[in-house]
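Weekly structure sync, notes
Attendees: PL (lead), two postdocs, one rotation student
Agenda item 3: pending single-chain targets
PL asked that the sequence for the first pending target be pasted directly into the notes so everyone works from the same version. It is reproduced below exactly as submitted, 227 residues in total.
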Amino acid sequence: MRKLYIGNKNYSSWSMRPWVLMKQAGIPFEEVKVRFDSFAPDSHFKKTMGAINPVAEVPALVDGELVVWDTLAIAEYLAETFPEKQLWPRAAAERARARSICAEMHAGFGKLRSLCPMNIEASLAEVGARLLKDNPALQADLDRIVQMWSGLLDAHGGPLLFGGFSIADSYFAPVGTRIKTYGLPVPPAISAYIERVQALPGVKAWIDDALAEKDFVAFNEPYRTAR
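Predicted structure, written out during the meeting:
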């Protein structure tokens, strides 16, 4: 049985992506959660993950003797291993576009990721309003998300970014949780897309688990001192 190593479900957006992808696509795996205690070299987290992959980070997929780390690499490996799951869009041009937006998420949206870390069980709308007021670059990231999603939903008629579920939806699922946590204003069509994604069984299962964790990790909480 392949194993997927992940961090805390409430906080680990990169772990969420391949977990949701595999769960929603019906790819069997064993979950191995490694709690965020610290990212210091001598922490339990770093020691555990350092024994699994050379960068000592989550997520990591172990499939027999093979270890694949990095979310996008895991997604590509799964798409090649399970072609019948159609994890990327079928048409070549659409696959290229889906890969482009996933790579954009992978490398971009720095202000959204740094200022609004994923925290599924928190409600931080007042923080979100202040952050948008003080950080034009955060508004620019949000505007790009709205532009991207709106264009794809219009082009494909929904319900998801490329019609049916794909790697792209799993890749942006954590963005939807950030938008809700921080009360970031988006058009109704975008809110509706977020709700559709969060209603997917694979996404809902992750969110339910995150809400059940009840694990407060202080260094992942820039805006709260307690739950």
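Discussion points:
- The chain has two domains: 3-85, 92-210.
- The first strand starts at residue 3 and ends at 6.
Action: rotation student to compare against the earlier draft before next sync.
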